[in-house]
Write a structure and sequence with these properties.
The complex is a heterodimer of chains A (about 400) and B (about 120). Chain A has about 400 residues and is mainly α. Among the domains of chain A are: about 5-95, no CATH class; about 100-210, no CATH class; about 225-290, no CATH class. Chain A has helices at about 5-20, 25-45, 50-70, 100-105, 115-125, 130-135, 140-155, 170-190, 195-210, 215-225, 250-265, 275-285, 290-305, 310-320, 325-335, 340-350, 355-370, 375-385; strands at about 235, 240. In chain A, strands 1-2 form a two-stranded antiparallel sheet. Chain B is of the alpha+beta class and about 120 residues long. Chain B has one domain (about 1-115): Dimeric alpha+beta barrel (Alpha-Beta Plaits, 2-Layer Sandwich), CATH 3.30.70.1060. Chain B contains 4 helices and 6 strands, in the order βααββββααβ. Chain B is flat and about 45 Å long. The relative contact order of chain B is 0.33. Classes of the chains: A mainly alpha (about 400), B alpha+beta (about 120).
Chain lengths: ~400, ~120
Amino acid sequence: MHLEQAFREEWGRVLAALIGFLGDFELAEEAAQEAFAAAAERWPRDGTPENPRAWLVTTARNRAIDRIRRDRTLATKTALLDVPEATEDEMDDTTIPDERLELLFTCCHPALALDAQVALTLRTLGGLATDEIARAFLVPEPTMAKRLVRAKKKIKAAGIPFRVPPAHLLPDRLVAVLAVVYLIFNEGYGGRGDLAAEAIRLGRALAELMPDEPEAHGLLALMLLNDARRDARFAEGAIVLLRDQDRSLWDFDQTADGRAALDRALALGGRGPYLLQAAIASLHVDEPPDWPQIAALYGELVRLTGSPVVELNRAAAIAEAGNAEAALAVVDRLQLDDYHYAHATRGELLRRLERTDEARAAYERAIELVHSDPERNFLEQRLAELEPPPA
Amino acid sequence: MKYALLIHQGTTPTPYDQEAWSRLSEDEQKAVYADYQAVNETPAVTPANFQLQAPETATTVRVEDGQTLTTDGPFVSVKEALGGWLVFEADDIDAAIELASRIPAARMGGAIEVRPIVEY
């Protein structure tokens, strides 16, 4: 295996084990970095050890203990000196606990700001470097570095625990974890593909670590199904609507993967928001999609989330099912005046109902509100396709 | 870990404002007292050993160029002013958040700030 890829795969596992052992993010991260640097130097020369993960954890652990010894004047840390020194061949995989789940719940603790949760998750579990995260979120590197340092300081100072929350806290906390992973995915879906792949990797780990949690599988399914259509979503800088997408660009292996995750979520008795969205995404793959069924699932999702944006999607599905009039009535009941999709959807429905003047006004309002270029290009195309106003 | 739970009353009706307080039913008033008592009697809680008067009674003092300047009212706005506090010793912030959520001000229009205390 390529060294860099091996490092990427191991980073989260190794770091989580070290934090669990040392109880200190900063120290664990420094020690892990030293161990990975040592591996980069030694492995190509001396050969990859039989158990790379154990080697990394043991090496990092010893470096950390050395460091604590050097800093032994810091009385608060001397307790750790009681830990017997491990030699490099003492540890094997069975003695290294998988504490990535603990790490994920710590990084996504609600006492941290959302942007810090996202950055910390990418740094610690994803193994992304600070400059990579900074680029992905379009902030200067020093800003991102400060954000990470501040978050790590808060974890320590405020006593944010390194553990999977107890049962009475778990449902709320799981919602936060899923939201962070999905947010990372959506950042990637907007065009930065590496983040989407990273989110899917996190989603796979989460589904593996919480095998009985339907929403973990539901989120994975949703990401896989949406990501499978990524290459078909843009053409010549404009968004391509689902029904106009070139299906030969869809990744059907990944679709099958997504559907397997969805089946698993359904078999576990799930009916949560990620599962519902995945089910909707799965129906979209069929040709032709079962629009009445999609509209019904959106209805279920509206009842769950109360979200007007979801209601807007329900309206679009009703329109696709052949009832533009009913769809327009749904859209007109919504209070989404600042949301460009609402006006774009109205424009499309009015066009289908041959109310061209109103359609034009709706598209124009949508263009006023839109921020992304591909979407603006798409709307301008639609507007241009309308019959011109009478001279 | 030790945490200070700083209580901000916000728009919470308190006996300092008899008009707002009297709009609560007698049962609601009793529940507020009972809840504060339960919080103060929680193991590992050290209640403040005094009670602050209403934020409106505060005076804020600054010194600029050697001159003492006083203004009427708290440093922050009356709504944001500190109303009281307690100290809680807990394993981690989750326990402190749970206790904070049981303090009546948190659900009645105010908020609780959880601040870790420096330990030597």
